[in-house]
Structure prediction request, 303 residues.
Amino acid sequence: MSAEQRPRILILGANGQLGQMLQRVFAGDGVVEALGRDRCDLADLDQVRNAVASFAPQLILNAAAYTAVDKAESEPELAARINAEAPGVLAEEAKKRGALLVHYSTDYVFDGSKRGPWVEDDPTSPLNVYGATKLEGERNILSAGGRALIFRTSWVVSAEGKNFLRTMLKLGAERDELRIVNDQYGAPTSTRAIAQGTKAVLASAGVEGAGEDTEGGVYHMTCAGETSWSGFAQAIFAAAGPSREQGWATVTGIPGSEYPTPARRPANSVLSNEKLAARFGVSLPAWDAEMRGILKTLGVARG
Ligand SMILES: NC(=O)c1ccc[n+]([C@@H]2O[C@H](COP(=O)([O-])OP(=O)(O)OC[C@H]3O[C@@H](n4cnc5c(N)ncnc54)[C@H](OP(=O)(O)O)[C@@H]3O)[C@@H](O)[C@H]2O)c1
Prediction:
């Protein structure tokens, strides 16, 4: 296939954990341009317009976001520009050229009060600024009326970047005891699974066909299974090889009320992935298998 025939793929947020994995997984799938904040700052809406206009992509994968959940409480305007306004502008630019926009959203659009997994059209009611700005981003994309897929994911982990798994490996080797919240439930989801899942959706629908559905374009996309933050920490230390003579830190579960943070977080943010499976035949692997894969990549898996 000549360079003119291969799809032009624009990846934004290239230096984030998901952005790095998307670059790897989509590397052979087209002419890829991956821009970090230094080359496309989503806080500058003209830069967003220019990035799309100058590369002229058929597919945009937007992994850029203001993800500092606690800090967002004190920077709501900046978080809104990056998470809400910029995705709306991206969607308008994509529509102008008939491109497909793939965007990632969050479990934090829900308030956590439901018993059982949340489905896509359950009522949203974010508890924090981050969740509210991400929800506004979804709405801005959908109201632009172009071709878009919005994948809500959760508890993102990877062998690189800033995430809970890497923080646990660091703190678990330094300390004897870690007090971790045990009354918030979700599904840890690897960037590998999200990037592969995205690719599988596009393979199922085709870049040209995807985003044409009548169901709003919002899909949940998380790894299978669920756990609490303390359950996740325990699983990490059980699957990781010995770190030092005295082993990993002991995990003590505590209620969220004993770990106050600027941003409130939902108690149950487990998402149902049934819509994704029914529409595209795509399911992500179990969170604990993905966790073991990351530990292996980091060279710390047991056995
Ligand atoms: N992390 C999670 O647990 C989680 C959970 C649910 C949903 N999500 C969603 O999943 C997607 C990927 O998140 P992630 O985990 O890969 O986050 P991440 O590792 O924090 O990466 C986010 C990237 O966005 C970039 N960014 C921030 N502000 C920007 C700006 N003004 N202009 C351009 N780029 C900017 C960051 O750039 P710098 O490298 O320069 O800081 C970073 O590279 C996001 O949409 C996020 O909302 C994440």
In short: Residues 8-162+190-224+270-284 form a domain with the Rossmann fold fold (CATH 3.40.50.720). The two ends are 44 Å apart (CA to CA). Residues 13, 15-19, 36-37, 41-43, 63-67, 82, 104, 106-107, 134, 153-156, 161 surround NAP (CB under 6 Å). Residues 76-96 form the longest helix (21 residues).
